[in-house]
Protein backbone atom coordinates (compact mmCIF):
# COMPACT_ATOMS: atom_id res chain seq x y z
CA UNK A 1 0.00 0.00 0.00
CA UNK A 2 1.34 3.45 -0.87
CA UNK A 3 2.29 5.91 1.86
CA UNK A 4 -0.48 8.20 0.61
CA UNK A 5 -3.06 5.45 1.10
CA UNK A 6 -1.75 4.90 4.61
CA UNK A 7 -2.10 8.63 5.29
CA UNK A 8 -5.70 8.53 4.03
CA UNK A 9 -6.53 5.52 6.24
CA UNK A 10 -5.05 7.23 9.31
CA UNK A 11 -7.09 10.35 8.54
CA UNK A 12 -10.28 8.30 8.15
CA UNK A 13 -9.71 6.59 11.50
CA UNK A 14 -9.15 9.95 13.18
CA UNK A 15 -12.52 11.12 11.85
CA UNK A 16 -14.10 8.63 14.27
CA UNK A 17 -12.79 10.84 17.13
CA UNK A 18 -14.85 13.78 15.86
CA UNK A 19 -18.36 14.41 17.14
CA UNK A 20 -20.85 17.15 16.29
CA UNK A 21 -20.37 20.40 18.16
CA UNK A 22 -16.60 20.04 18.29
CA UNK A 23 -14.26 22.94 17.68
CA UNK A 24 -11.37 21.54 15.72
CA UNK A 25 -7.81 22.50 14.87
CA UNK A 26 -7.07 21.57 11.28
CA UNK A 27 -3.47 20.56 10.59
CA UNK A 28 -1.31 21.18 7.54
CA UNK A 29 0.29 18.79 5.05
CA UNK A 30 -0.72 15.90 2.84
CA UNK A 31 -2.00 13.71 5.72
CA UNK A 32 -4.02 16.52 7.28
CA UNK A 33 -5.41 17.26 3.80
CA UNK A 34 -7.02 13.80 3.77
CA UNK A 35 -8.58 14.60 7.15
CA UNK A 36 -9.96 17.94 5.91
CA UNK A 37 -11.37 16.29 2.79
CA UNK A 38 -13.08 13.54 4.84
CA UNK A 39 -14.38 16.09 7.32
CA UNK A 40 -15.82 18.20 4.53
CA UNK A 41 -17.58 15.19 3.07
CA UNK A 42 -19.25 14.40 6.40
CA UNK A 43 -20.23 18.04 6.93
CA UNK A 44 -21.74 18.31 3.44
CA UNK A 45 -23.73 15.13 4.00
CA UNK A 46 -25.04 16.55 7.29
CA UNK A 47 -23.33 13.83 9.39
CA UNK A 48 -21.17 16.27 11.35
CA UNK A 49 -21.63 19.84 12.51
CA UNK A 50 -18.25 21.28 13.50
CA UNK A 51 -16.09 24.39 13.11
CA UNK A 52 -12.41 24.38 12.33
CA UNK A 53 -9.39 26.61 12.82
CA UNK A 54 -6.89 26.11 9.99
CA UNK A 55 -3.17 26.03 10.84
CA UNK A 56 -2.08 27.56 7.52
CA UNK A 57 -3.31 29.54 4.55
CA UNK A 58 -3.10 26.32 2.50
CA UNK A 59 -5.37 24.47 4.92
CA UNK A 60 -7.72 27.47 5.01
CA UNK A 61 -8.09 27.25 1.23
CA UNK A 62 -8.56 23.48 1.32
CA UNK A 63 -11.18 23.67 4.07
CA UNK A 64 -13.15 26.27 2.11
CA UNK A 65 -12.97 24.04 -1.00
CA UNK A 66 -14.31 21.08 0.98
CA UNK A 67 -17.05 23.06 2.72
CA UNK A 68 -15.68 22.87 6.28
CA UNK A 69 -17.09 25.78 8.35
CA UNK A 70 -14.24 27.90 9.68
CA UNK A 71 -13.59 30.14 12.62
CA UNK A 72 -10.47 31.85 13.94
CA UNK A 73 -8.53 31.25 17.11
CA UNK A 74 -9.45 34.78 18.20
CA UNK A 75 -13.17 34.02 17.85
CA UNK A 76 -12.77 30.52 19.29
CA UNK A 77 -9.69 30.45 21.51
CA UNK A 78 -10.32 27.04 23.10
CA UNK A 79 -10.54 24.00 20.87
CA UNK A 80 -11.62 20.43 21.59
CA UNK A 81 -9.36 18.53 19.23
CA UNK A 82 -6.57 19.19 16.74
CA UNK A 83 -5.74 16.59 14.13
CA UNK A 84 -2.43 17.11 12.37
CA UNK A 85 0.37 15.24 10.64
CA UNK A 86 4.01 14.98 11.72
CA UNK A 87 7.41 14.56 10.15
CA UNK A 88 8.57 12.24 12.94
CA UNK A 89 7.16 10.88 16.17
CA UNK A 90 8.72 8.71 18.83
CA UNK A 91 7.31 6.25 21.37
CA UNK A 92 6.70 9.07 23.88
CA UNK A 93 4.62 10.98 21.31
CA UNK A 94 7.25 13.65 20.97
CA UNK A 95 7.09 15.13 17.48
CA UNK A 96 9.15 16.87 14.85
CA UNK A 97 6.89 19.09 12.77
CA UNK A 98 7.25 21.93 10.31
CA UNK A 99 8.25 20.13 7.11
CA UNK A 100 5.45 22.09 5.46
CA UNK A 101 6.53 25.31 7.14
CA UNK A 102 3.42 25.71 9.30
CA UNK A 103 4.96 24.86 12.69
CA UNK A 104 4.19 28.18 14.38
CA UNK A 105 0.45 28.17 13.78
CA UNK A 106 0.35 24.40 14.25
CA UNK A 107 1.89 24.72 17.70
CA UNK A 108 -0.34 27.63 18.74
CA UNK A 109 -3.44 25.72 17.62
CA UNK A 110 -2.31 22.46 19.25
CA UNK A 111 -1.59 24.28 22.52
CA UNK A 112 -5.10 25.78 22.44
CA UNK A 113 -6.66 22.33 22.06
CA UNK A 114 -7.77 19.99 24.81
CA UNK A 115 -6.41 17.12 22.70
CA UNK A 116 -4.01 16.75 19.79
CA UNK A 117 -4.10 13.61 17.68
CA UNK A 118 -1.38 12.97 15.11
CA UNK A 119 -2.16 11.04 11.96
CA UNK A 120 0.68 9.47 10.02
CA UNK A 121 1.88 6.66 7.85
CA UNK A 122 4.12 4.14 9.58
CA UNK A 123 7.35 5.61 8.14
CA UNK A 124 6.98 8.60 10.49
CA UNK A 125 7.47 6.52 13.66
CA UNK A 126 11.10 6.56 14.79
CA UNK A 127 13.14 5.18 17.68
CA UNK A 128 14.88 8.51 18.11
CA UNK A 129 13.96 11.93 16.70
CA UNK A 130 16.36 13.82 14.49
CA UNK A 131 16.84 12.08 11.15
CA UNK A 132 14.39 14.63 9.75
CA UNK A 133 16.06 18.08 9.88
CA UNK A 134 14.43 20.14 12.62
CA UNK A 135 12.60 23.20 11.24
CA UNK A 136 13.24 26.37 13.24
CA UNK A 137 11.26 29.52 12.42
CA UNK A 138 13.20 32.76 12.89
CA UNK A 139 12.33 36.39 12.31
CA UNK A 140 14.11 37.92 9.30
CA UNK A 141 15.80 40.65 11.36
CA UNK A 142 19.24 39.44 12.36
CA UNK A 143 18.61 35.97 10.95
CA UNK A 144 22.32 35.21 10.52
CA UNK A 145 23.03 36.11 14.14
CA UNK A 146 20.10 33.92 15.18
CA UNK A 147 21.51 31.04 13.12
CA UNK A 148 24.88 31.39 14.87
CA UNK A 149 23.11 31.36 18.26
CA UNK A 150 21.22 28.19 17.25
CA UNK A 151 24.46 26.55 16.19
CA UNK A 152 26.17 27.45 19.48
CA UNK A 153 23.21 26.29 21.59
CA UNK A 154 23.13 22.91 19.82
CA UNK A 155 26.90 22.46 20.16
CA UNK A 156 26.65 23.19 23.88
CA UNK A 157 24.38 20.14 24.07
CA UNK A 158 26.99 18.01 22.28
CA UNK A 159 25.23 18.12 18.91
CA UNK A 160 26.79 18.79 15.52
CA UNK A 161 24.23 20.91 13.67
CA UNK A 162 24.18 21.79 9.98
CA UNK A 163 21.82 24.67 9.28
CA UNK A 164 20.19 25.35 5.92
CA UNK A 165 18.09 28.41 5.25
CA UNK A 166 14.97 27.01 3.58
CA UNK A 167 14.55 28.31 0.05
CA UNK A 168 11.28 28.94 -1.75
CA UNK A 169 10.37 29.87 -5.31
CA UNK A 170 12.61 31.97 -7.58
CA UNK A 171 15.73 31.47 -5.48
CA UNK A 172 14.30 33.55 -2.64
CA UNK A 173 14.12 32.35 0.96
CA UNK A 174 10.92 30.53 1.89
CA UNK A 175 8.55 32.75 3.87
CA UNK A 176 6.10 31.30 6.38
CA UNK A 177 2.48 32.43 6.60
CA UNK A 178 3.67 34.87 9.28
CA UNK A 179 6.43 36.27 7.04
CA UNK A 180 9.30 34.57 8.86
CA UNK A 181 12.19 32.41 7.65
CA UNK A 182 12.94 28.77 8.39
CA UNK A 183 16.27 27.17 9.17
CA UNK A 184 16.24 23.40 8.72
CA UNK A 185 18.67 22.10 11.33
CA UNK A 186 20.24 18.78 10.43
CA UNK A 187 21.25 17.03 13.65
CA UNK A 188 21.14 13.33 12.61
CA UNK A 189 19.79 12.48 16.07
CA UNK A 190 18.31 14.39 19.00
CA UNK A 191 19.18 12.41 22.15
CA UNK A 192 17.50 14.90 24.53
CA UNK A 193 14.59 16.65 22.77
CA UNK A 194 13.47 18.48 25.95
CA UNK A 195 16.91 20.06 26.49
CA UNK A 196 17.12 21.14 22.86
CA UNK A 197 13.58 22.54 22.92
CA UNK A 198 14.40 24.58 26.03
CA UNK A 199 17.66 25.86 24.55
CA UNK A 200 16.03 26.91 21.27
CA UNK A 201 13.12 28.61 23.02
CA UNK A 202 15.60 30.82 24.88
CA UNK A 203 17.21 32.28 21.75
CA UNK A 204 16.06 35.79 20.77
CA UNK A 205 15.00 35.70 17.12
CA UNK A 206 13.73 32.11 17.27
CA UNK A 207 9.98 32.40 16.91
CA UNK A 208 9.27 28.69 17.28
CA UNK A 209 10.87 25.32 16.68
CA UNK A 210 9.42 22.09 15.35
CA UNK A 211 9.81 20.01 18.51
CA UNK A 212 6.31 19.35 19.88
CA UNK A 213 6.70 17.95 23.38
CA UNK A 214 3.82 17.19 25.71
CA UNK A 215 1.25 18.38 23.17
CA UNK A 216 0.22 15.18 21.41
CA UNK A 217 -1.95 12.73 23.37
CA UNK A 218 -2.53 10.09 20.70
CA UNK A 219 -1.33 9.07 17.26
CA UNK A 220 -3.12 7.07 14.59
CA UNK A 221 -0.51 5.20 12.58
CA UNK A 222 -1.45 3.40 9.39
CA UNK A 223 0.95 0.71 8.20
CA UNK A 224 0.81 -1.72 5.29
CA UNK A 225 -1.58 -4.10 7.06
CA UNK A 226 -2.83 -2.48 10.23
CA UNK A 227 -3.86 0.78 11.81
CA UNK A 228 -2.73 1.26 15.39
CA UNK A 229 -3.40 3.95 17.93
CA UNK A 230 -0.58 5.05 20.24
CA UNK A 231 -1.59 6.88 23.42
CA UNK A 232 -5.13 7.87 24.30
C1 LIG B 1 3.60 20.98 8.27
C2 LIG B 1 3.76 19.76 9.08
C3 LIG B 1 3.20 18.50 8.53
O1 LIG B 1 2.29 17.99 9.44
C4 LIG B 1 4.31 17.52 8.33
O2 LIG B 1 5.27 18.12 7.45
C5 LIG B 1 3.80 16.21 7.73
O3 LIG B 1 3.41 16.42 6.41
P1 LIG B 1 2.77 15.26 5.53
O4 LIG B 1 1.47 14.90 6.16
O5 LIG B 1 2.61 15.91 4.17
O6 LIG B 1 3.74 14.11 5.50
O7 LIG B 1 4.31 19.76 10.16
O8 LIG B 1 4.24 22.08 8.85
Automatic annotation (TrEMBL):
HAMAP family membership: Rib_5P_isom_A
InterPro entries referenced in this protein's UniProt entry, alphabetically: NagB/RpiA_transferase-like (IPR037171), Ribose-5P_isomerase (IPR050262), Ribose5P_isomerase_typA_subgr (IPR020672), Ribose5P_isomerase_type_A (IPR004788)
List of residues binding substrate: 28-31, 84-87, 97-100, 124
Catalysed reactions listed for this entry: aldehydo-D-ribose 5-phosphate = D-ribulose 5-phosphate
Protein's recorded name: Ribose-5-phosphate isomerase A
GO molecular function (one): ribose-5-phosphate isomerase activity
UniProt keyword list: Isomerase
Top-level taxon in the UniProt lineage: Bacteria
The keyword Isomerase appears for this protein: yes
Sequence similarity: Belongs to the ribose 5-phosphate isomerase family.
Leading EC class: isomerase
Active site as annotated: 106 (proton acceptor)
Native species: Microbaculum marinisediminis
Amino acid sequence: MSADNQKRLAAERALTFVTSGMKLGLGTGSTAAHFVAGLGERVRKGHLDVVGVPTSEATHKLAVQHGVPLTTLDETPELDLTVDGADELDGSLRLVKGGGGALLREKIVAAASARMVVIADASKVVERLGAFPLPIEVIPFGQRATAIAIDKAARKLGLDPVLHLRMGAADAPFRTDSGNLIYDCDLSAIPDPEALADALSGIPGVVEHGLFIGLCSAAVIAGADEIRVMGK
